[in-house]
């Protein structure tokens, strides 16, 4: 078993290298090698400074310099992620049948995409490594996601309010095609990243728009039904949260 | 950085290559062998950037295997290119050490005369 300090160093190194666009396989190989070294050194009573020197940050830099920038990985991951964000925000209007694009919307969305990459890099290097073992780790990620999603929602609402001239309004057929393209992209990204998350999030996000499209307006605007739904959602969230918390404690 | 550690830094590439040339080995064992030879590195981890460089330049080849202690371990062996590079390093070292020794001895001689 590694000491907390060594484990912390490995986490920081991994995130530092990830943020610098290094190859995943190389990062894994190196961290495994260093873990093995630290484990043996600690078994002989050495402290981590003995291995990484007085300045862990300097050591990380020296490693980073040797690894080079994995252009192929970033070249595929950055556009994939940008497309993923676009797909998230296209598929809800597509389900509702109201997909449209305005010039201002495009400009602000590109700016937000770039901003999200910068925030991601900052969190990965400066914030998340320090919180890896803390319950705040997921808290910070959740807050970052919420703020980002919130910003996009603000843009959409603001666009609707200012009546920004859309230069493209999708026909019903185009809406269905956009929806199909989004679903296909979610599946492709899930296979690429080997994670269900890009399918699960849109699945849950789609309930609202689906309901909006297929449930009659009279039912949709009934205050009684809205209240019951809100209470139910809050209850499910609390129960889910408590169950998750208990499960973690048992572990 | 002290003069010694700066000198060692420049020699680390060739020295690690020479160690790996003696037979398949891995990170921690390399450190132990360096210490046996009284080769003081700045910090133990400083060999890894060098090992990465050697691997990148195709001077060593690596294989990951399970270690007796649990995690996977990376083993290094020298390549054909590595052997050529090692010979070049030996030649350079001979020239360099002869040059420096002769220079220092000459200096000592003059000092003795004065």
Automatic annotation (TrEMBL), chain A:
<feature type="coiled-coil region">
    <location>
        <begin position="20"/>
        <end position="47"/>
    </location>
</feature>
<keyword id="KW-0175">Coiled coil</keyword>
<feature type="transmembrane region" description="Helical">
    <location>
        <begin position="74"/>
        <end position="92"/>
    </location>
</feature>
<feature type="transmembrane region" description="Helical">
    <location>
        <begin position="225"/>
        <end position="245"/>
    </location>
</feature>
<feature type="transmembrane region" description="Helical">
    <location>
        <begin position="136"/>
        <end position="158"/>
    </location>
</feature>
<feature type="transmembrane region" description="Helical">
    <location>
        <begin position="104"/>
        <end position="124"/>
    </location>
</feature>
<protein>
    <recommendedName>
        <fullName>NADH dehydrogenase subunit</fullName>
    </recommendedName>
</protein>
<keyword id="KW-0472">Membrane</keyword>
<keyword id="KW-1133">Transmembrane helix</keyword>
<keyword id="KW-0812">Transmembrane</keyword>
<feature type="transmembrane region" description="Helical">
    <location>
        <begin position="178"/>
        <end position="205"/>
    </location>
</feature>
Automatic annotation (TrEMBL), chain B:
<protein>
    <submittedName>
        <fullName>PadR family transcriptional regulator</fullName>
    </submittedName>
</protein>
<dbReference type="InterPro" id="IPR005149">
    <property type="entry name" value="Tscrpt_reg_PadR_N"/>
</dbReference>
<dbReference type="Pfam" id="PF03551">
    <property type="entry name" value="PadR"/>
</dbReference>
<dbReference type="InterPro" id="IPR036390">
    <property type="entry name" value="WH_DNA-bd_sf"/>
</dbReference>
<feature type="domain" description="Transcription regulator PadR N-terminal">
    <location>
        <begin position="16"/>
        <end position="87"/>
    </location>
</feature>
<dbReference type="InterPro" id="IPR052509">
    <property type="entry name" value="Metal_resp_DNA-bind_regulator"/>
</dbReference>
<dbReference type="InterPro" id="IPR036388">
    <property type="entry name" value="WH-like_DNA-bd_sf"/>
</dbReference>
């Amino acid at each position: 078993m590694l000491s907390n300090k060594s484990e912390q160093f490995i986490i920081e190194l991994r995130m530092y290298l990830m943020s610098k666009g290094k190859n995943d396989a190389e990062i894994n190989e190196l961290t495994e090698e260093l873990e093995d070294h630290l484990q043996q050194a600690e078994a002989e009573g050495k402290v981590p400074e003995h291995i990484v020197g007085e300045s862990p940050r300097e050591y990380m830099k020296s490693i980073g310099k040797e690894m080079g920038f994995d252009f192929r990985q970033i070249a595929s991951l950055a556009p994939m992620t940008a497309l993923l964000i676009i797909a998230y925000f296209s598929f809800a209007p597509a389900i509702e049948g109201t997909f449209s694009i305005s010039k201002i919307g495009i400009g602000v969305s590109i700016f937000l995409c770039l901003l999200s990459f910068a925030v991601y890099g900052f969190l990965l290097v400066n914030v998340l490594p320090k919180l890896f073992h803390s319950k705040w780790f997921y808290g910070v990620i959740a807050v970052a996601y919420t703020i980002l999603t919130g910003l996009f929602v603000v843009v959409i609402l603001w666009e609707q309010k200012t009546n920004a001239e859309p230069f493209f309004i999708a026909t019903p057929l185009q809406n269905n095609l956009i929806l199909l393209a989004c679903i296909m992209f979610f599946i492709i990204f899930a296979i690429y990243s080997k994670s269900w998350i890009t399918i699960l999030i849109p699945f849950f996000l789609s309930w609202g728009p689906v309901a909006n499209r297929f449930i009659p307006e009279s039912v949709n605007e009934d205050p009684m039904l809205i209240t019951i739904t809100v209470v139910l959602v809050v209850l499910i969230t609390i129960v889910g949260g408590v169950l998750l918390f208990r499960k973690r404690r048992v572990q | 950085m002290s003069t010694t550690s700066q000198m060692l830094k420049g020699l680390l590439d060739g020295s690690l290559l020479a160690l790996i040339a003696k037979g398949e080995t891995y990170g921690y064992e390399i450190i132990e062998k360096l210490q046996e030879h009284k080769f003081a590195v700045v910090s133990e981890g400083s060999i890894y950037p060098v090992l990465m460089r050697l691997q990148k330049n195709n001077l060593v080849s690596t294989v990951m295997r399970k270690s007796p202690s649990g995690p996977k371990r990376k083993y290094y062996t020298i390549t054909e290119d590595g052997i050529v590079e090692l010979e070049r390093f030996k030649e350079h070292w001979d020239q360099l050490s002869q040059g420096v020794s002769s220079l220092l001895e000459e200096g000592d001689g003059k000092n003795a005369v004065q």
